[in-house]
Design a protein that fits this description.
5 helices; 11% strand; elongated; mainly alpha; 71% helix; 3-stranded antiparallel beta sheet
């Protein structure tokens, strides 16, 4: 019998979260995919609309979309022969939360540095 403990469940959740973040940042590492995400942030788009600004085949665009879908950044629905893509803001918010943690970390560090520089300046006078 295989019994899962709370730490096993927690580790699984952390690993899944980290894997998803890896997929998200991998997907966003490409400028074409970032531009596609930006286009979908305005409104949902068809695959043809997403392909329009790029000098790329529909097959190439489809490969980019698959990377975005694997990262759960894009949801695709099919209406007849038309594929409609929309941004999944939940996955994007995971990346934002991760980045905000480090933004707070660095802001705190810069505040400490500023404080030390002010003390040093005060001691000079």
């Amino acid at each position: 019998m295989n019994i899962k403990t709370n730490s096993d469940i927690f580790n699984h959740m952390v690993n899944h979260y980290e894997d998803n973040l890896n997929d998200i940042f991998h997907a966003l590492a490409d400028s074409t995919r970032r531009e596609m995400v930006q286009m979908m942030a305005e409104r949902e788009r068809t695959v043809s609309e997403l392909a329009e600004p790029f000098d790329m085949s529909l097959a190439g665009i489809s490969k980019h979309l698959k990377v975005l879908e694997r990262a759960n950044l894009v949801e695709r629905s099919i209406n007849g022969r038309t594929h409609i893509c929309r941004l999944n803001t939940e996955s994007l918010s995971q990346a934002t939360k991760w980045l905000q943690f480090y933004e707070r970390f660095w802001n705190n560090r810069f505040d400490l540095l500023e404080s030390e520089l002010m003390k040093a300046k005060k001691n000079e006078n």
